[in-house]
TrEMBL record:
Signal peptide start and end residues: none
Listed InterPro entries: Fe-S_cluster_assembly_SufBD, SUF_FeS_clus_asmbl_SufBD_core, SUF_FeS_clus_asmbl_SufBD_sf
Name of the featured protein: SufBD protein
PANTHER family: PROTEIN ABCI7, CHLOROPLASTIC
């Protein structure tokens, strides 16, 4: 496949490193990948067994899937305007819910890549007062490229949480959402594996008093690169949006977040807020944070902030004085730093899984306080 990839000379892609994608696109899937038992453990243990989809190299494994209200086939998505989304194709998974409907339990979707590239689109369409909670988990090696298009009608509610836990390779996710009157859309992403990532999102508030919350935690070490770009566009009166991103970079890794709020002239009474914080665990690591506000209405409340710093030396000294080993103290404070990005997840089982994933990245050090502490301040 001949890839037409953007270069770092383009402003929107200046922090991304796509140099590995041509080789991954030319690679052959390792269908005999022997880590299948590990994939099976990626399902979350819920009290109510909901729909499950397992995609291996972008193809549905029907024997390990339970579709419920979901379907697999042609989807109605528009990939225009994004070079990676344009690769997604026209056949993928779909969740369409009628008025007042909801799936029975948490929807779980696991994507496994076995060393090559796979592309998959998805659509989520929620009618009036419908609601769904979805968690997607990305595993394995290779390049998983996804385009997800979402539409929420009046009063609909969608919680979408993603875990990037692959061993190596690349994950690229493009999200486009329209949020109607009084609807609520929350998106949380945790990158706690060994893959590089490129995350793009556009959420457009088209109805009055709608709510959008987007963010997550990006954890990188060695030479990993995570690059997140999210735009919330307010087009209607009384909308509220929150963007909260936490980046942790160690060794020679790089985490970059560009978050923007756009408020059109008609979107009076908008309430928008951005919080971008980065933590450097090594002086050789890099964190980029770029908050942006573009406001054309005159009666709005919007705020943004960005900080990048290192672990609080006073807190490290305090823990050391009480016998906490240096590496454990470092992990405790770093986990506390990202806790507020994870604690916003409404589903308890998902929230606990995200904390466990973060714990695995840090070496299974428990949180210092139940429910997530606030510490590890950066300057």
């Amino acid at each position: 496949m001949l890839l037409n990839l953007p270069s770092t000379r383009e402003e929107a892609w200046r922090w991304s490193d796509l140099s590995a994608l041509p080789a991954l696109a030319a690679a052959t899937p390792q269908t005999a990948h022997g880590d299948r038992e590990h994939w099976e453990h990626s399902w979350l243990d819920c009290a109510l067994d909901g729909p499950r989809l397992l995609f291996v190299d972008g193809k549905l494994d029907e024997s390990r899937s339970k579709l419920g209200p979901l379907s697999v086939g042609a989807v109605d998505v528009d990939p225009r305007g994004h070079p990676l989304a344009a690769l997604a194709g026209a056949s993928g998974w779909s969740l369409r819910l009628d008025r007042d409907h909801a799936p029975a339990g948490l929807v779980q979707i696991v994507h496994v890549s076995t060393g090559a590239a796979d592309h998959l689109p998805a659509e989520i369409v929620l009618d009036v007062d419908a609601q769904a909670s979805i968690v997607e988990t990305y595993m394995g090696d290779g390049w998983a490229n996804r385009l997800t298009q979402m539409s929420l009608a009046k009063g609909a509610r969608l919680m979408l949480a993603r875990r990037l836990l692959g061993t190596s390779g690349f994950v690229s996710l493009t999200d486009r959402a329209e949020i109607g009157e009084g609807a609520s859309f929350t998106l949380t992403t945790l990158a706690a594996g060994g893959t590089d990532s490129r995350l793009d999102g556009e959420a457009t508030i088209t109805g009055e008093a709608a709510f959008v919350e987007a963010g997550g935690a990006l954890l990188a070490r060695n030479r990993q690169r995570h690059d997140a770009n999210f735009v919330v566009r307010h087009e209607a009166v009384g909308g509220m949006s929150r963007q909260l991103w936490r980046s942790v970079a160690d060794d020679r890794s790089t985490c970059s977040v560009a978050a923007r709020v756009e408020v059109e002239r008609a979107a009076q009474k908008t309430d928008g807020e951005q919080s971008l914080k980065g933590l450097l665990l090594a002086r050789t690591a890099t964190v980029n944070a770029k908050p942006e506000l573009e406001i054309f209405a005159d009666d709005v409340k919007c705020a943004h902030g960005a900080t990048v710093g290192e672990l609080d030396k006073a807190a490290l000294f305090y823990l050391a004085s009480r016998g906490v080993p240096p590496e454990e103290a470092k992990a405790l404070l770093t986990r506390a730093f990202i806790a507020d990005a994870i604690d916003r997840i409404g589903e308890e089982v998902v929230r606990e899984a995200f904390h466990a994933d973060a714990g695995n990245w840090f070496g299974s050090v428990p949180l210092p306080l139940a429910g997530g502490a606030r510490g590890g301040a950066v300057e």
